Automatic annotation (TrEMBL):
It comes from the Bacteria. Gene3D superfamilies: 2.30.30.100, Bira Bifunctional Protein, Domain 2. GO terms for molecular function: ATP binding; biotin--[biotin carboxyl-carrier protein] ligase activity. It comes from Schaalia canis. Its EC number is 6.3.4.15. The lineage of its organism: Bacteria, Bacillati, Actinomycetota, Actinomycetes, Actinomycetales. This is biotin--[biotin carboxyl-carrier protein] ligase.
Amino acid sequence: MPYVSNLEPKFDGITRQHPIIHLDTIDSTNSHARTLLTTTTPPPHLTTIIADHQSAGRGRLGRSWITTRHGALTATTLLRLPSPLPNEAPAWCLHATALAIRDALAPILRPHAHTVTTKWPNDVLIDGERKICGILAEDLGQTHGSHYLAIGYGVNIIMDANARPAPHATALSLEGDEEAQHSPLTRRATLLDAILNGIDARFRALQAAQWDPTSSGLADEAQRHCVTLGQQVALPHAHSSAPEAQTSPMKYGRALAIDRSGALIVEREDGTHSLITTGDVLLPHEYHPRPSSDS
């Protein structure tokens, strides 16, 4: 398969520095990224697969991710990392992607008086509550002398307010972006370009700093934009993919910081500190939902 941009003419007008594979329908862009590693020619760094529709999109912890055709930017970007893989690299590549997406969305939504923040470990939120993007990182292992990481992301562009897949889901069209409403494919193209440039810049900074998140500036950027920090959060149950579905009492703690490994430092109710490395934490509006405006 040639690694060249085969985007349709509607995406023309944007100079692209990175290889793009554009597909009509695919089960999952992350799954397709994995198949690229079985070819004799290694895919270049930042090769990106974009699909008009995913039939079996996946989120973290085995969750499904559903969107309408052309309703979202559904993409996976392959990152080519050194081998052996630095321990902190996968987590900080995930944070780098979240920050790149935040930066791409912020100037679009700032005129509409909205803030864009990240939620540890893999979401992008509007006004600290409404989820517009989820990210899934998968370690594809070593091949062709390099270590590959697949970063899948879905940014909601246009959505029916009465057909939200989850109560706190949102899209650019629902937040006042007229281009998303009237020209979703154009918005998708410009968004992808900004995201790839943002990932590239942060990846280069990490490389130059020998994967040190502090000296690269990424740790400080992640702390500044993470809405989780400072909040009283509900902690994930052990071996659970859905804390809210468990019958045992929830445990809570205050999110303090993101540590060098990319994990979340939490102060528990008894005053002890813990590192949360996997699972989701719930923000107050998620474990204490507000009454709907209709009630």
